[in-house]
Each structure stands twice: as structure tokens, then as C-alpha cells.
Amino acid sequence: MPKSDKLIIKHIPDFLDYCEVEKGLANRTQEDYQHYLKKFILWLKNNKKEGLLPHELTPDDIWAYRLYLSRYTNEKGHSLK
């Protein structure tokens, strides 16, 4: 697969469209994907990585995001678990 010069953030709407049209995922599944991808965008921005291209994302980035999700709590103190 060729390297994309399109930012990761810019791929997300295309991915969600793909999930809807090509994969035919259930609405709830699509909503869940969108929910976590919004959190991913926020994580990218908070870590000054919103300019990443897909091929620049590292296993360490993915681990850090997973750790962020694991430790995330909202303003009411509720976790994602």
C-alpha cells in the first residue's frame, strides 16, 4: 500500500463511510467507532500529533492511546469501562 500524504484525521470520515456503505455495520457499531475515533482525534491533538500521516503512527503511539482510553474519566468521573 502506498504511503498517504493525507493526515490521519482526514481519513476518519472516509473510514466511517466505508463502515456504513461497504461493511454494512450496524448503526450502534458505527456510533461506537465514531465515539472512539473522536477520542482518538482529541488524544492526537492533546499530544500534538494531529499532523501525523498514517505511516508515521507508531506502535508506541497506539499503546499510549490505549493507555489513555484505559485511564480516561469524564467530567463526572466515569470511565469508559
Please render the helix and strand layout as text:
Layout: H1 8-21, H2 27-46, H3 59-71
Helix pairs in contact: 1-2
Description:
The chain has one domain. It is mostly helical. The model has no long low-confidence stretch (mean pLDDT 92). It contains 3 helices and no strands. It has helices at 8-21, 27-46, 59-71.
Largest β-sheet summary? none
Poorly predicted runs are none
H/E series, N to C?
Answer: HHH
Distance between the termini: 35 Å
Tell me the helix content.
Answer: 55-70%
Query: What Rg do the Cα atoms give?
Result: 14 Å
Number of continuous helical runs? 3
Quaternary structure type? single chain
> Would you tell me the structural class of the helices and strands?
mainly alpha
Tertiary shape: flat
Residue fraction in strands: under 5%
The total of beta strands comes to 0
**Mean pLDDT across residues:** 92
Any idea how many domains?
1
InterPro entries: CB, Integrase_recombinase_N, Integrase_SAM-like_N
Pfam families: Phage_int_SAM_4
Keywords: DNA-binding
Domain Core-binding (CB): 6-81
Provide the descriptors you would attach to this structure in a database record.
single chain, 81 residues, DNA binding
Put the structure in a nutshell.
This protein is mostly helical and 81 residues long.
